[in-house]
Amino acid sequence: MPSISITPRVTVTRFLTDTFLIALTVDCVKRALKIIWRSWATRGGLPATRRSASPVAVNNLDNLDDLDYPAFTTGQAADLLGVRQAFLRSLDTANLLRPQRSEGGHRRYSRRQLHLAARIRTLFDEGHSLAATARIIGLEDDLAAAHDQIAELRGQLGTNTEQQH
């Protein structure tokens, strides 16, 4: 095996470069920690832990019965539906399912949106394309709305005929 000779100058230069990079990295970490510490100090101390009970979290428990309350993260929704998270993200990208966003920008899904995602997945499993799936769901929703309107009008018609007798 051939030996590689490195001149003392190259070795010293490499040592100095490595030492400089390490010093630079340590300096960056120190500065970042100072910035974080200052921001915590201006907010009144360390941030609350995840286990601490806040009044906001307790008050939001009433929202869990609401079908439109965005209670599920992308991971939770994917686990409940038995799909990959990428599937849910692709529905958002295709504007077929638009979840709400948390303050941090993360997707949050409601139970109504989970039902819609399950319908979409079923149509995909039956072999329909994305465009066909969107059209089918749109037509199904229109038909359901028309049935609701017919039932409401029949109820009004029945009420009017009873009042006339």
UniProtKB/TrEMBL annotation:
Q: Which GO terms describe its molecular function?
A: DNA binding; DNA-binding transcription factor activity
Sorted keywords for this record are: DNA-binding
Q: Name one Pfam family in it.
A: MerR_1
Domain named HTH merR-type is located at 71-139
How is this protein named in the record? MerR family transcriptional regulator
* Signal peptide annotation: none
Quote the PANTHER family the UniProt record gives. Answer: HTH MERR-TYPE DOMAIN-CONTAINING PROTEIN (PTHR30204:SF93), REDOX-CYCLING DRUG-SENSING TRANSCRIPTIONAL ACTIVATOR SOXR (PTHR30204)
Q: Which domain of life is it from?
A: Bacteria
